[in-house]
Input
Amino acid sequence: PNVTVKAGTTVRWINVDKRTSHSVWLKEAGQPESERMFNFETYEFPFITPGKYPYICGPHGVEEKMVGHVTVTP
Output
């Protein structure tokens, strides 16, 4: 759920859950929620600016502890 990357890195989320769809929502960064990803579909986001970026799974979020953050270093 948590990862540290250098600025300019593109992070890829992969849904490996065969039962349901998921999304990635960088809500606090002002990004729209991604489209729903089904089994083995992906979502990519380039992190350009250093900082800490919390994200959640739109349909499951905090209730199901599907949260994390990407820390971007210079």
User: Anything to note?
Assistant: The two ends are 21 Å apart (CA to CA).
